[in-house]
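name: query_chain
kind: protein
chains: 1
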Amino acid sequence: MDSESTICPNSTIKGVTVYVKIDHIVGEKLNPKPTDQEIEFNVKAKLEEKKRKSGQITIIFTLIIGTKPSTVKYATKGTATLEGRMEDLEKMLEIDPETKVPHVLNIVYQHVFTSIYLLSTILNAPYPPPDLLYTKEEKMGLPPEEEAIIQPSTEQAMSEPTPIETTEATENPPPATPTEAEVPT
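structure:
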């Protein structure tokens, strides 16, 4: 592995270097009309060990990401090569007790997400969140104590706009892309 992709860079995590190579990616817009319903993403993943040698494990992966309601479907296939000490490689293949997925799958998904995001912009379709495989506690965001500090000031600013803010909001509304409107928060 001598080159590094800009879209899917190599990463070193817990003493293991992971090289992700996407061989196939496809996106299909199943419903051209935007939906008012909240979109839920689900993931079907298959990881299969292809090759194992001293200090290296190669895995073939397939990820299929769909939505409810059925709006868009993404599918990708490729390989992930893990390099490092064998005991560290074994830990990467273990299932995380909180997320119920192998640690390596989170790394593969992070690489695949970037490509899916680009594909979603071409399709003008919703994209899955970058933290889709994490538990609610692990999702990106502020700790609850910091969220509580910021929340009151945000609500006050939103409920009492200044005359300048009101004028800007009515005369020059910010441009919105359809993908931003369709993505659940």
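note: The mean pLDDT is 75.
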